[in-house]
Automatic annotation (TrEMBL):
It is found in: Peroxisome membrane. It holds the Pfam family PEX11. The chain crosses the membrane at residues 120-143. This is Peroxisomal membrane protein 11B.
Amino acid sequence: MNDSVDKLVIFLAKRDGIDKLVKTFQYVSKLVNWHVEATHPDTSKRFKQWEVASGLSRKAFRTGRFLTGFNVLRRNPGSTLSLRLLAVLSNAGEMVYFFFDHFLWLARIGTIDASLAKKMSFISAFGESVGYVFFIIADFIMLKEGLKAERKLRRSSSKEKSEEEEKAVILKIRSDRIMRLMAVAANLADLFIAIAEIEPNPFCNHTVTLGISGLVSAWAGWYRNWPS
């Protein structure tokens, strides 16, 4: 019990930890609002307010986050030319997303012209979707490389590594695979949300699609950020 509490404290001490928690509030309230809108309008209104407040608070909390892309590229530019290029493109898209998200937040709270909100939202979502596409491609490449490395390790002679060393390497590859699959799930879910803003359509813009996508993204991110 104490270990779980300690992990929760560590998780909530992270910027991403708080973001995933509030994102859960945002999309749970969106789904509840949709579910009770016709039968309990007063309750629906309260959950709608919770959804809007959560979304705006997340934008405020992400102030300056577009700069993290520079740090990611500096610390881990990629092991091959193709991965370096994908890292530049994906992080550039994400930086556009976070940068213009600042102006979207300011427009929605009335600090700047509210008519700019739609334009800022489109630019932000477009950068976001571009970033997610390249993040997903990079993760699939790394998943493929991990599978090849695991197969090669299993075929190789046990004289090169002890059984314990081999198990440790395989465990590391599998742990990385799970994290990358969680990243793919989160990025795909967020891509649906971004597409709903760029090119509105009945499927992506449906409340259930948006709600489930938001929760998949939040909980996949929750898993990735939870202390090991």
